[in-house]
Write a structure and sequence with these properties.
Elements (H helix, E strand, L loop, with lengths): L1 H23 L8 E2 L3 H29 L4 H9 L2 H18 L1 H4 L3 H16 L2 H34 E3 L3 H30 L10 H26 L7 H25 L8 H4 L7 H4 L10 E4 L3 H23 L3 H21 L1 E4 L11 H5 L9 E9 L2 E8 L3 E10 L2 E12 L9 E8 L11 E9 L7 E6 L2 E6 L4 E8 L9 E4 L5 E5 L9 E2 L1
Parallel strand pairs: 8-16
Antiparallel strand pairs: 1-2, 3-4, 5-6, 6-7, 7-8, 9-10, 10-13, 11-12, 11-14, 14-15
Length: about 525
């Protein structure tokens, strides 16, 4: 929740700061006179690095509490991460702007410095973490376009004191808004390709539901943008109505910011079927499903009811746009937009139909061939552990000496068969670069879950230092369990009807049973992929 609030405030700060400085850099004839809130501008410059400090504090506390890293050493380590570097550099740039605001205001250098702040925020964003340079570029373009478009209209809506000539403003702003919208759409597709490759399937998850709601809210934003273009063509328009229209569009944009911020706390659906192993179906989606989801996928099927809802929603949306364009009855238009979006959302939800999951029925001659199927043909797969439990085999392996993966396969006559959606992955930093990398997954559904119990706890990892560890002893709230090391790797799977506490220290034991070191774990993973 703290991260979500911080993200909402950060987006607002970028938008307002960009809006003010972008408008100040323009000649007076191209913009209305603005109220100069000097304290607000300086407050925004103070708040931006503070908000970028939030993820830094979270990482420091994680290192300090979960990995027993000394506090000041944890701070030094985090400064080397993208989030730490983004905070330090943003603090420097914000200080330069704060001290020289009077001199820089009205110059394009101030706009450039805000662009640098946005670049730094994108550098430490989730898109960059998941998709590298591709995600970084997409996130940067997205934030820059939103900040210029929404920031400008919010500033003229809430801080314009006098409209000298609305046409001179709308002429250039319509072009800027058009370019911004095109950039948002393109960068949005870039981010979706990296983070949400299965858009319709993602509706099964909270992240996908929020993304759909965000896209629906974007529709009236586009209509308001078109409306403001036509305002500039009118001979006489009251200043109050113009400002009120901009304010309403900025409030809708704030809702979009809020949805975007809460998405950052949800599990991104890189592969929905995989994610459903450990994450429940979104509560909103459950309201519309008539059957249980396990490994199923969804598709859209439209009957006369859904088509009628869609036509009705489209008609009300068109009616709202007509009211806005013709009569400028803003309250009526906003109400009609809200009703139309509800109908469009219901159309999609009622159209959802459960489908089957295509299971791989091939019997592979070796375990390595079976587990290699999801990866590229040139991927380097190294099998570290194979443990048989009842009629299944637990396999722990590395992919390109980077990710550590635990997977289940089934022994068959003549070979092994893969289970659908049966991979738990530890990613992030390359496994070979870590002294120890251990994670526990709390599983409540899917192929790793033992249906006889409420929860299954899967703990696995690799210990490269210290070298003389023979086994580990994991101390869950419900009991202690020992797992032997093989090729410096171990796995332990246990189920319980109790929801055990996240804290579960792990003792590294020598051959004689002596405790060499204790590894502190104060969190359990809820998804199928973790850093």
């Amino acid at each position: 929740m703290i991260d979500s609030i911080a993200n909402v405030l950060l987006y607002i700060c970028f938008a307002l700061l960009m809006g003010f400085l972008f408008l100040y850099a323009l000649p007076n004839r191209y913009r209305p006179n603005l109220i100069e809130p000097k304290k607000l501008l300086k407050g925004l410059l103070v708040l931006i690095p503070v908000l970028l400090l939030v993820p830094v504090i979270r990482v420091v506390l994680t290192l300090y509490t979960q990995f027993s890293v000394p506090f000041f050493e944890a701070i030094g380590t985090v400064v080397l991460y993208s989030s730490g570097q983004a905070f330090v550099l943003s603090a420097i740039i914000a200080t330069v702007l704060f001290v020289n605001l009077a001199n820089l205001k009205g110059s394009w250098l101030s706009v450039l410095l805000v662009l640098f702040l946005i670049v730094l925020a994108s550098w430490s964003s989730h898109g960059a973490a998941v998709a590298g340079m591709f995600g970084f570029i997409g996130n940067t373009l997205h934030l820059v376009a939103v900040s210029i478009w929404i920031g400008t209209l919010a500033v003229v809506g809430w801080f314009a004191s006098d409209w000298k000539e609305i046409r001179s403003f709308t002429r250039w702003f319509s072009i800027v808004a058009l370019v911004a919208v095109a950039t948002i759409v393109v960068s949005g597709f870039m981010l979706m390709a990296a983070i949400v490759p299965e858009y319709i399937q993602s509706w099964l998850l909270t992240y996908g539901q929020l993304l759909l709601i965000k896209h629906l809210l974007f529709l009236p934003l586009l209509v308001f943008g078109l409306h403001h273009f036509f305002l500039g063509l009118r001979n006489e328009v009251g200043n109050e109505k113009v400002s009120k229209s901009f304010r309403i569009e900025s409030i809708i944009a704030l809702l979009v910011f809020g949805v975007s911020a809460f998405m950052t706390e949800q599990t991104p659906p890189h592969e929905v079927v995989q994610t459903l192993q450990t994450e429940s179906v979104a509560p909103l989606m459950q309201l519309f499903l008539t059957e249980t989801v396990s490994f199923g996928v969804i598709s859209l099927s439209f009957s006369i009811i859904e088509i009628s809802l869609f036509v009705l929603g489209l008609f009300i949306f068109a009616y709202a746009a007509w009211i806005l364009m013709k009569s400028m009855h803003l309250r009526k238009a906003v109400t009609a937009f809200a009703v139309s979006l509800v109908f469009l959302y219901l159309t999609l939800m009622f159209s959802v139909e459960m489908g089957g999951y295509e299971q791989d029925e091939t019997v592979y001659p070796t375990i390595k061939e079976a587990i290699s199927q999801p990866y590229q043909s040139d991927a380097k797969i190294d099998v570290l552990i194979t443990e048989q439990y009842e009629e299944e085999i637990y396999v722990v392996y590395t992919v390109d000496q980077h990710d550590l993966v635990a997977e289940k396969v089934i022994p068959m006559d003549g070979g092994y068969k893969r289970l659908p959606a049966a991979m738990l992955t530890i990613g992030g930093t390359a496994i070979v670069d870590e002294k120890q990398k251990i994670r526990t997954f709390r599983v409540q559904s899917g192929n790793w879950h033992d249906d006889r119990y409420a929860n299954t706890y899967v703990t696995f990892g690799m210990i490269q230092d210290p070298l003389d560890v023979a086994r580990v002893q994991i101390h869950y709230e419900g009991g202690s369990y020992i797992a032997e090391l093989e090729q410096q790797t171990f796995i332990n799977v246990v189920s319980s009807n109790e929801n055990w506490a996240d804290q579960h220290p792990i003792d590294f034991l020598a051959e004689n049973g002596e405790v060499i070191e204790t590894y502190s774990r104060n969190v359990m993973e809820e998804g199928v992929y973790c850093h």
